[in-house]
Design brief:
The chain has helices at about 5-35, 65-70, 80-85, 135-150, 160-175, 190-195, 200-215, 240-255, 285-300, 315-335, 375-380, 385-400, 420-430, 445-450, 455-465, 480-490, 495-500, 505-520, 535-545, and strands spanning about 35-40, 45-50, 95-100, 110-120, 125-135, 180-185, 220-225, 230-235, 260, 265, 270-275, 305-310, 340-345, 355-365, 370, 410, 440-445, 470-475, 490-495, 525-530, 550. It has about 575 residues and is an alpha/beta fold. The chain has 3 domains: about 35-140, Beta-Lactamase, CATH 3.30.450; about 150-310, Alpha-Beta Plaits (2-Layer Sandwich); about 320-565, Alpha-Beta Barrel (TIM Barrel), CATH 3.20.20.450. It has an 8-stranded mixed barrel, surrounded by 4 helices. α5 crosses α9 (about 285-300) and α6 (about 190-195) packs across α7. The longest helix is centred in the N-terminal third of the chain and has 28 residues, at about 5-35. The N and C termini lie far apart (about 100 Å).
Length: about 575
């Protein structure tokens, strides 16, 4: 018989106790290394036992008294934790609660996570867990939230955030039977300022105009930047006659004195378009659209103008027609009736096809085919052109993947070119299909490239990094300078067809085209002549030095081209 002494029997228990203590110390060290404090909260006695709290808690709260801890939490940030304490759930459960505590160095954020233990009646009797300092994370979340709603240059609301404010204001005005207004203020002739003083000065003018507009507004009014040279202003409570008064103040504030820039004093003015709500528009999208229409009217007679949107039966009929067309386009997308037609672009010297331009076509239910000009303007007005542009890009990429021996040019609408988020999505889609990128050409309209220069300069740069070429469409119809094109680093300009059609019969257009081609060659930019309709015109253009031809004389747009057979 083996006799074991009491001392021998105690040794295993001591080993277990030492092992348990070692594990507890290891866990405590890990918690402290992670910036956490362990707590055991007896809610019945009102006592908290802390481990590691001295490292993270403000000194005045390093206490075992629960009341002191609760009182130290800012009332507006106590709700989540109080809900755990007040719970009457009969089952034990894990919890997470965020709190904020005032300290001498400012507010400190903490996250408590652990297990709640109830008594037989469901009341909370014990909380055990960890508390972590999450101040830096909370600040970063707030910073990112701020950036998500703010314009990077001016600090005012961005377009999406302003549109949300506008939507809420319209709904509130409807519910409370009152009125509000939305104004769009556009910096006049920003392109000339950029040309004369440089783009840094242009940015300073935009910043200065934004500051002057903001200082002129009431505390309840809201301002945001809606595009490169445009600001949106929301007047939350406004009678109709007050719109013109506010617009006058805004314009006067901008033109009152020159704006200081590193390139010198710059004189600036702005034009304003306005819409009274909710009478003249029932949604934020409609309000923004109609304010832009009023702005176009204000700028029609030059700079520093003002116009308010006026309802008219004719305009309302046109709007309803645009809505109908937009609905037809959405249905065509769903039913796969939106197609690409491919028009050849030929090299001037060899007369061989260089690449094809992708042109949108909609097949109607009766089989008839509509060209893009019949429906794309309506999609831009109704805010769905992004869907059409995305379809065109995806269809073009699919065609490039199916035919390794062709190159395609795809268009980006002017509306999409003003939306940095959409442009980034466009680039990301091409990046995912970068194998075909060198055979893709992206065409931007001249007016879009000018009015949204910063966004498009970055867009062009990203496309070039992927091997995509960039062309400016309808060149000559607007007023982009070759200096701007050089700064954009475009590869090609397409001469507007109105200057090319019947060129051999127009000496004036011949002078313009010859000069334009000469300038393009000096900047090492290729040229494409659109609407080439005869051999006489082609010969003249080739003699001027045009690099490529496009027009019915060389091939019509085809939905089912020969290379697809």
């Amino acid at each position: 018989m083996v006799v074991v002494s009491k001392v021998a029997l105690q040794k295993p228990n001591q080993v277990v106790q030492l092992s348990t203590l070692e594990n507890e110390l290891r866990l405590l060290m890990a918690a402290q290394a992670a910036g956490c404090a362990a707590f055991d909260w007896d809610t019945t006695a009102g006592v908290i036992h802390w481990e590691g709290a001295t490292d993270i808690l403000p000194q005045h709260l390093d206490s075992a008294v629960a009341r002191n801890f609760l009182d130290g939490i800012m009332p507006e940030r106590r709700g989540e934790l109080q809900a755990v304490l007040d719970s009457r759930d009969g089952a034990s459960a894990s919890f997470v609660a965020d709190i904020e505590i005032a300290s001498a160095l400012g507010a400190v954020n903490f996250t408590l996570s652990g297990v709640r233990t109830p008594d037989a009646g469901g009341r909370t009797v014990r909380l055990v867990g960890l508390m972590r300092d999450t101040t830096e994370r909370s600040r970063e979340v707030r910073r990112l939230s701020y950036l998500a709603t703010r314009d990077e240059l001016t600090g005012h609301l961005n377009r999406n955030a302003l549109r949300e404010e506008l939507s809420q204001a319209i709904e509130s005005a409807k519910a409370e039977n009152r009125n509000c207004a939305f104004l769009v203020a556009s910096v006049d002739r920003l392109a000339m300022i950029n040309d004369s003083f440089g783009f840094d000065a242009g940015d300073e003018v935009i910043l200065g105009v934004g500051e002057r507009l903001a200082r002129t507004l009431r505390g309840s009014d809201v301002i945001g930047r809606t595009a490169g040279n445009k600001f949106g202003v929301l007047l939350k409570n406004c009678r109709e006659h007050e719109i013109a008064i506010v617009a006058t103040r805004l314009r006067a504030a901008v033109r009152a004195s020159g704006i200081e820039s590193r390139s010198g004093l710059v004189a600036a003015t702005c034009s304003v378009g306005a819409v009274w709500l909710p009478q003249a528009a029932s949604t934020s999208q409609e309000a923004m659209l109609r304010a832009e229409q009023a702005l176009d009217k204000a700028r029609a007679n030059g700079r520093d103008g003002f116009a308010a949107y006026q309802l008219s039966p004719q305009r309302e009929t046109a709007r309803l027609r645009q809505m109908q067309i937009a609905d037809e386009v959405v249905l065509a997308l769903k039913e796969n009736r939106l197609k690409l037609a491919y028009q050849p672009i030929v090299a001037a010297r060899s007369r061989k096809v260089s690449h094809y331009e992708c042109l949108l076509r909609m097949i109607k239910p009766d089989g008839s085919i509509l060209a893009a000009g019949h429906f794309v303007p309506a999609t831009e007005q109704m805010g769905i052109v992004h869907l059409v542009d995305r379809f065109a890009l995806e269809a073009a990429i699919a065609t490039l993947k199916a035919h390794a021996d062709i190159s395609l040019a795809v268009n980006v609408s002017g509306t999409a070119a003003s939306d940095p988020a959409w442009l980034q999505e466009f680039v990301d889609y091409i990046r995912a299909e970068k194998a075909v990128a060198p055979r893709l050409i992206v065409e931007l309209t001249e007016t879009a490239a000018l009015h949204h220069f910063e966004e498009n300069a970055q867009f062009v740069s990203q496309l070039h990094e992927l091997g995509v070429r960039v062309a400016i469409d309808d060149f000559g119809a607007g007023y982009t300078s070759f200096r701007n094109l050089q700064m954009l680093h475009v590869d090609t300009v397409k001469i507007d067809g109105s200057y090319v059609k019947d060129l051999s019969q127009s000496p004036e257009n011949q002078v313009f085209v010859r000069t334009l081609v000469g300038l393009a060659r000096s900047f090492d930019i290729k040229t494409v002549a659109e609407w080439v309709g005869s051999e006489d015109d082609a010969a003249l253009l080739q003699n001027f030095g045009v690099d490529y031809f496009q027009g019915f004389f060389f091939g019509e747009p085809l939905i089912d081209p020969k290379w697809d057979k």
